[in-house]
């Protein structure tokens, strides 16, 4: 239901005014604005639709901008034209929170909503494949060790990495550099194996190849799913929820002998598992009255609990104690500090 914007103005903090040089003036509103992660997008979209259906407020506006892009918009300042919430498939970085603070966004609550696995999947027309984390790294890294030297990645076929793998061209659709899924993939699937390889001197290596084998497929993970139905020799990198939503079209790849299944992801046994978050701009709470009603709905047991609605979409619930901690942080509007990260 559309409602006219009210005339009450946002209050601008002194620090924001100092940074921007002028006071930010904006009208209060009843429609929440949300940006951020494509992985969190399906879960948040469900909650926004439910919120619009069962409350007197209009359905929140939500954009899939990627985690990094969403946090950048969120941290631009306080007031009209800036988002109220940013979804993220990784934790906010120290540098990002510091930028928030510099721009006057000084009161942010971090909300962890559940767990997710990053899957390496292909069309179900193929036989399922198993990879070690090291084999996956060797397929995507820009430079790899050959005869003890780091060279530009020469591998164009899976069987060149290991003779036990299929004689099949390596082609991988994956998220862009602004994506939280990409950040998490680099941390979990690249940092970990590279630190154990002598050629990298014990240092983490996360540069992804740019020779056409890894194809930047944009922020919309649904497009990767669509491409795999057309390019059946290729693989895709995306959140578990997209695998769960397409069980007949896609098959996941076991990594280090562990299948990408909810129990393994929740337990931390699946090697490429991560937590999902959203960030709330508390300075907007007074001028955007429905803000915390929406947040409360999102973190309710009905949504994120065992058997909750979001579980049907692929969200893997946190342990009960962690869910309670999340709700307490929301109730307290706990202020995220740089020292917390």
The average pLDDT score comes to 89
| Total number of helices | 13
Q: State the end-to-end distance.
A: 39 Å
User: Can you tell me the residue ranges where pLDDT is under 50 for at least 5 consecutive residues?
Assistant: 1-26
Strand elements, count: 13
- State the share of residues found in helices, binned by percent: 25-40%
What pattern of helices and strands is seen along the backbone? HEHEHEHEEHEEHEHEHEHEEHEHHH
Largest sheet: 9 strands, mixed
Proportion of residues in extended strands = 15-25%
Q: What would you call the shape?
A: globular
Describe the fold and architecture.
It is a single chain. The protein has 341 residues and is of the alpha/beta class. 33% of the residues lie in helices and 18% in strands. Strands 1, 2, 3, 4, 8, 9, 10, 11 and 13 form a nine-stranded mixed sheet that branches. The chain has a two-stranded parallel ribbon with strand order 5-12. Strands 6-7 form a two-stranded antiparallel ribbon. The two termini are 39 Å apart. The model is unreliable at 1-26 (pLDDT under 50).
Q: What attributes characterize this protein structure?
A:
globular; 341 residues; disordered N terminus; 33% helix; 18% strand; 13 helices; alpha/beta; 13 strands; two-stranded parallel sheet; 9-stranded mixed β-sheet
Task: Furnish the topology, listing elements before pairings.
Elements: H1 14-20, E1 33-36, H2 41-54, E2 61-62, H3 67-74, E3 85-88, H4 94-102, E4 108-123, E5 130-131, H5 133-140, E6 143-146, E7 149-152, H6 158-161, E8 172-174, H7 180-195, E9 214-216, H8 221-230, E10 235-239, H9 240-245, E11 250-252, E12 254-255, H10 262-267, E13 273-281, H11 291-298, H12 301-304, H13 320-332
């Amino acid at each position: 239901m559309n409602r006219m914007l009210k005339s009450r103005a946002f209050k601008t903090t002194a620090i924001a005014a100092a940074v921007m040089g002028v006071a930010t003036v904006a009208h209060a509103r009843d429609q929440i604005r949300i940006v951020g992660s494509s992985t969190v997008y399906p879960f948040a979209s469900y909650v926004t639709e439910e919120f619009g259906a069962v409350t007197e407020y209009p359905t929140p506006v939500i954009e899939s901008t990627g985690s990094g892009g969403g946090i950048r918009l969120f941290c631009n300042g306080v007031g009209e034209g800036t988002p109220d919430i940013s979804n993220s498939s990784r934790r906010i970085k120290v540098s990002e929170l510091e930028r928030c603070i510099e721009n006057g966004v000084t009161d942010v609550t971090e909300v962890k909503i559940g767990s997710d696995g990053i899957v390496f999947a292909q069309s179900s027309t193929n036989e399922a494949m198993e990879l070690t984390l090291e084999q996956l790294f060797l397929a995507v890294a820009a430079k790899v060790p050959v005869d003890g030297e780091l060279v530009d990645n020469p591998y164009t076929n899976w069987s060149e990495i290991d003779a036990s793998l299929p004689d099949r061209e390596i082609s991988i659709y994956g998220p862009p550099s602004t994506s939280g899924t990409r950040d998490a993939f680099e941390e979990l699937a690249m940092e970990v194996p590279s630190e154990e390889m002598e050629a990298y001197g014990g240092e983490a290596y996360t540069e992804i190849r740019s020779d056409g084998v890894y194809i930047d497929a944009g922020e919309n993970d649904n497009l990767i799913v669509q491409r795999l139905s057309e390019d059946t020799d290729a693989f895709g990198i995306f959140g578990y929820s997209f695998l769960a939503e397409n069980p007949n079209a896609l098959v996941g790849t076991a990594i280090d002998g562990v299948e990408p299944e909810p129990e393994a992801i929740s337990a931390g046994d699946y090697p490429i598992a991560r937590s999902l978050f959203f960030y709330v701009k508390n300075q907007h709470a007074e001028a955007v009255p429905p803000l915390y009603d929406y947040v409360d709905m999102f973190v309710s047991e009905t949504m994120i609990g065992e058997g909750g609605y979001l579980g049907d979409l692929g969200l893997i619930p946190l342990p009960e104690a962690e869910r309670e901690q999340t709700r307490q942080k929301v109730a307290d509007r706990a202020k995220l500090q740089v020292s917390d990260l």
